[in-house]
Automatic annotation (TrEMBL):
Pfam families in the record: GFO_IDH_MocA (PF01408), GFO_IDH_MocA_C3 (PF22725)
Top-level taxon: Bacteria
Ranges for region Disordered: 330-358
Name used for this protein in its record: Gfo/Idh/MocA family oxidoreductase
Domain Gfo/Idh/MocA-like oxidoreductase N-terminal: 8-123
Residue ranges of every copy of the GFO/IDH/MocA-like oxidoreductase domain listed in the record: 131-241
Amino acid sequence: MADCPSTRIGVAGYGYWGSKHVRVLTSLSGVEVTVIEPDEERRRRARADHPGVGVVRDLDDMLDGLDGVVVVTPPATHARLALKALAAKVPTLVEKPLVLLEEDGVAVVEAARAAGVQLMVGHVFAYDAAVRKLRDVIASGELGRVLHIDCARLSLGRYRQDCDVVWDLAPHDISIVAHLLGELPATVSAWTHRAVRAAHADVAHLRLDFAEAGVPAFVHVSWLAPEKVRRITVVGEKKTAVYDDLAGDERLTIHDVGVELPDGDGGTDAGCRVVHRSGDIVSRPVPGAEPLMVQDAHFVDCVRAGTSPATPGEQGLAVVRVLAAADRAASTGTPAAVPRRRTAAGTEWGRRSVEVAS
Ligand SMILES: NC(=O)c1ccc[n+]([C@@H]2O[C@H](COP(=O)([O-])OP(=O)(O)OC[C@H]3O[C@@H](n4cnc5c(N)ncnc54)[C@H](O)[C@@H]3O)[C@@H](O)[C@H]2O)c1
């Protein structure tokens, strides 16, 4: 690569999200982008949107000439494409969810290790300055002891063919909360509903229980809500933090509100009385770069330097294990344990994942 003038990145899939990857990658200096897309109309659109980029039909036509691949195709195709790229020793960034089956995730992670190339998962919120700031706010003790976390990711969604709303949207909330608390949930409970199609749930509620932090996180995901909501609320004993992804630079606010037990109650709950506290709401501005831009620039840096990504494939696999536990919980109606795995690198979830400069 030393005598290669630019870093050659292939983007597999020029659909809704792949077109955004192409937009950010083409804006990075020294990056040459090739779109890989089987659909003729989408190839035509890619050429029209980006006259400078190469456009091909199949990943096989391109693998020899790539320094890295971004897989932004339907989730059911992720494992096959990633295994193909890794077998050719091409560093690979795979969009969330990493795969749809745990065994495929194990195979993809093992393939990357065997090939000695980087496998990164697109947990884009790990690259959002607001998530890093929120984690710092929690760690600083400003909120006091965290009592619970509430996540809502709702809209009139794009119904997917190959997975349900949990696998489509909850990877974001699972990875965000894991970054905030620095651990994976130990158990998952899930309630799902198939409102429109028989094949896949379009509305779901999850409860994730975190053993070390000792707090639950509740996750509501829906493709069937009239209003778009992207919100994480961290309720603490002293204050509450609200991360509203739709609020631009003001997406992180700290609310000096809460309830306390009256003096002398001693937690016995006598009379169920509480004292309400209502103070200021303060915005913590988080300008920062577009998270997708930070993520893809980080992938290109890792490709160039041969370094490990901040969101490695193991984290993608860890989230897949949580999603698989949610499936078990939904079908049995009882909480499901998330199997713990130690990897060659140590824990599945490390703090480093949010230390990327933006
Ligand atoms: N991080 C995020 O916020 C975010 C947001 C949206 C989607 N996504 C993820 O991005 C991925 C794609 O989602 P989307 O909404 O863009 O889907 P989409 O259906 O709009 O686009 C997928 C594209 O992949 C193409 N494709 C299918 N098989 C292919 C193959 N073998 N090689 C190359 N291209 C192929 C399809 O023709 C299509 O153009 C999914 O994994 C999704 O979960 C992530």
